[in-house]
């Protein structure tokens, strides 16, 4: 493998190796001792905390309340919803012994919490006045992974899971789309990922859902990554757990429920949407550090060190997350490379000559402008604008990349060609057999039926039968 | 059992029943389906989020970084520190099957994370420049409980666990006391619990620690509750996991490590420190709602409803967490009782006559002042001061209660009498046999050797042998 000086395989050479090496090398994550587990290191966890704070605020602003439900679920609970248990059984971790004894009934480590929350909802809801019940939980979940990949597929991951109960289908479907809209906004406006929102085809639905909606991002290798899902569960879980309410007329009805989740997978999505051969590129709105200040001293140049500290304080006062890299044992060049690898949007270099000129050298993580000398005094004022521009630049670049790698495919050769490097929008018959046929030939599957797609009918791009869904389906290879 | 109109046993009659019923009735918590597990409901979770935000800020301000380590730990890891595994083995929940197969090595659901973090520290630390390594994790842990009690002893609970590595004992001991100081401050200044900080006697140490420090609060039944612990682990875990660094002179040394934790148990501590026959009493700095506004209308009195909403907005703008209880189907009297039960510090009643007089009736959750008419316009300005006073009142009341239930006991009868209703400070020989003797006779054990105790020597209050520790020991029955 060709590697640059940083010891990470070039993205252009081997995307998978680049990703696997980069997330570890950049200090985002490390492998845990148990198979498929990950340790989220402080630099990665800061990114998660930023995302969490932003997402949590939006969830609360739309009337949801946080709660916490148990990790361990009696195995029999999962069996109450037939499709649900069928979908999750192969991925379950099971506690059979506790307190030094074999348990009478094994406990499942939650892979998701519909069942245990359903059980509690049935207890809490009696009247139409208790509805809607809008809950959210921040938690860890465990799903056994045979081919783990840091952030993308790990045995344990962190997420939020919204769970809501409603009086009727219309209200529950409104909620499903509300959550999807929040995810789309968070992905686009914070992570700078121009996701496509759409509905999953029946074969790709969440186990137990009536409808599953998704946001799909395009990674820089052209593959799709599902970055958040929102499910309308109908009355499936309400029937399985007895979630009923008495309506205004006194009649007892089943609740319509929803669930929706976004996970630490987003960290991987950000790495694969914006990163390049030099390393990570973090969108300023989520970056742990938006600016790194590197003082250029030969040890003990207190004037430069003090000026760097002072600059950082003034940037922080202006709301800019700033880190000073004052490690004495490392050269400025080493630090530049390291912070490029770690994706900090803006670097400020400050040496004795800069200080004399009352400027700092500003280098952006991306863009062809090279370094610029900027007056020290102006930095706190201009930096927020520079970061906003950088954020917009990332979104525009990712949108351009996505659009230039998405093809409307009317013929099978066009389709096969499109999904070898990106996505295809095509008409499809909607049968599982044809989906499987396409997958075996191209490794691409239906990602979603995009919400913004226009009405379209005609022959299936693969088998020629009449198209389903009333519009085109988005196909791609996926993580 | 005598119950008041709210369906909760009186505190004065049966403290345990009062607590068990109240935390459920007040909507803080509910029982989970698996034995000993709890569901933290939104009202309880809001309190936890308040505590979490305050504690997290203090942890970060003192240089610690958050990270996340795996839930599942290979069983062999726990065996590497002999005392540690001996202490935790009886409480472990064990995953033996995953992904549809029996695992080659069982995985333990973390009861605490010293072992897995020790393993990672050994990987990350090589040089003295990597020290101190100051980490914190917010997580769930599982310890199998035979006699579960909501918040106090549950099979799963939430906590933060700090884990740090240092170059020498002095630095690690400084860290241990720093964490203890943060806990003492959070308990006192936020939860209004005047805890006693001290060192655990050897028999009460954390499994694997060299020294364990604790903060102990007195509940209103005179029992002690351990509300946070901080451990100096010496080089025990460093030796077990190989956490070594190369010093400035080039010599390889073992790190000295610490760990410290505070948990959702604090919610129970708050309930049992301040609650009374009427229900919970929340300290304003942690209360989910500091003020509840109850509009008194006979449905459709829009002037009153609007004024209530307007008042709430102005209180919120003044930084006061305010809730308007505008449920149409419930009487004002029902609401007053409910919010007393739920511990809201201040209630504002607003009816048509109040509105005409441009006042609201203000009722505090505790105190003998009765209701007062307060000009609506002045409320946003005066409320922060009222809440500050209420917070100080709770701390003063709890301090007075603690001090009036703590006795310096020089004789065995005085000692036995003291620990039947509260705490005793007494000289003790320090032997395990004598500790056990005291426990079997009085159900009281050594809570800690208070840090603020004065030097004292003499005969053991129980056996007459020479006292240990150089000062008095605090004894009490405990949760």
TrEMBL record, chains A, B:
Its domain of life? Bacteria
Family matches, as Pfam families: HGTP_anticodon, ProRS-C_1, tRNA-synt_2b
Listed PROSITE patterns = AA_TRNA_LIGASE_II (PS50862)
Question: Which Gene3D superfamilies would you find in this protein's record?
Answer: Anticodon-binding domain, Bira Bifunctional Protein, Domain 2, C-terminal domain of ProRS
What catalytic activity is recorded?
tRNA(Pro) + L-proline + ATP = L-prolyl-tRNA(Pro) + AMP + diphosphate
**Where does the record say this protein resides?**
Cytoplasm
For this UniProt record, the keywords arranged alphabetically read as follows: Aminoacyl-tRNA synthetase, ATP-binding, Cytoplasm, Ligase, Nucleotide-binding, Protein biosynthesis
Q: Family assignment?
A: Belongs to the class-II aminoacyl-tRNA synthetase family. ProS type 3 subfamily.
What does the record give as the function of this protein?
Catalyzes the attachment of proline to tRNA(Pro) in a two-step reaction: proline is first activated by ATP to form Pro-AMP and then transferred to the acceptor end of tRNA(Pro).
Oligomeric state and interaction partners are given as: Homodimer.
Record protein name field: Proline--tRNA ligase
Q: Which organism is it from?
A: Amycolatopsis magusensis
């Amino acid at each position: 493998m060709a590697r640059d000086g940083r010891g990470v395989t070039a993205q252009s050479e081997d995307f998978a190796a680049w990703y696997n090496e980069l997330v570890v090398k950049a200090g985002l994550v490390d492998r845990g001792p148990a198979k498929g587990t990950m340790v989220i290191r402080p630099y990665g966890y800061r990114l998660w905390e930023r995302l969490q704070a932003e997402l949590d605020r939006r969830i609360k602003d739309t009337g949801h309340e946080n709660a916490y439900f148990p990790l361990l679920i009696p195995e029999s609970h999962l069996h109450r919803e037939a499709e649900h248990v069928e979908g999750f059984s192969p991925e379950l971790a099971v506690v059979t012994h506790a307190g030094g004894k074999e348990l009478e009934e094994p406990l499942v480590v939650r892979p998701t919490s519909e069942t245990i929350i359903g059980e509690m909802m049935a207890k809490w809801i009696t009247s139409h006045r208790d509805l809607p019940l809008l809950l959210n939980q921040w938690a860890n979940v465990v799903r056994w992974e045979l081919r783990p990949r840091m952030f993308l597929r790990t045995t344990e991951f962190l997420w939020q899971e919204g769970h809501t109960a409603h009086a009727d289908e219309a209200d529950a479907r409104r909620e499903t789309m509300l959550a999807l809209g929040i995810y789309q906004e968070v992905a686009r406006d914070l992570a700078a990922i121009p996701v496509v929102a759409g509905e999953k085809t029946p074969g790709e639905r969440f186990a137990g859902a009536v409808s599953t909606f998704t946001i799909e991002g395009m990674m820089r290798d052209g593959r799709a990554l599902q970055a958040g899902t929102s499910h309308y569960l109908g009355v499936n879980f309400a029937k399985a757990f007895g979630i009923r309410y008495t309506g205004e007329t006194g009649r007892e009805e089943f609740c319509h429920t929803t669930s929706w989740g976004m996970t630490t997978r987003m960290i991987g999505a950000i790495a694969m949407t914006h990163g390049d051969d030099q390393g990570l590129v973090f969108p300023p709105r989520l970056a742990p550090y938006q600016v790194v200040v590197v003082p250029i001293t030969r040890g003990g140049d207190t004037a430069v060190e003090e000026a760097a500290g002072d600059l950082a304080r003034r940037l922080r006062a202006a709301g800019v997350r700033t880190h000073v890299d004052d490690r004495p044992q490392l050269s400025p060049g080493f630090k530049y490379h390291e912070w490029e690898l770690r994706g900090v949007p803006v670097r400020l270099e400050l040496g004795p000559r800069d200080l004399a000129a009352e400027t700092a050298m500003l280098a952006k993580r991306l863009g062809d402008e090279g370094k610029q000398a900027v007056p020290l005094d102006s930095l706190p004022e201009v930096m927020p604008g520079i970061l906003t521009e950088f954020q917009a630049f990332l979104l525009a670049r990712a949108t351009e990349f996505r659009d230039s790698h998405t093809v409307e495919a009317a013929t099978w050769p066009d389709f096969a060609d499109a999904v070898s490097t990106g996505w295809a929008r095509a008409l499809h018959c909607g049968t599982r057999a044809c989906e499987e046929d396409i997958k075996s030939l191209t490794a691409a599957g239906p990602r979603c039926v995009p919400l913004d797609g226009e009405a379209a009918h005609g022959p299936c791009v693969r088998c020629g039968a009449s198209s389903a869904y009333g519009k085109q389906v988005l196909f791609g290879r996926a993580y």
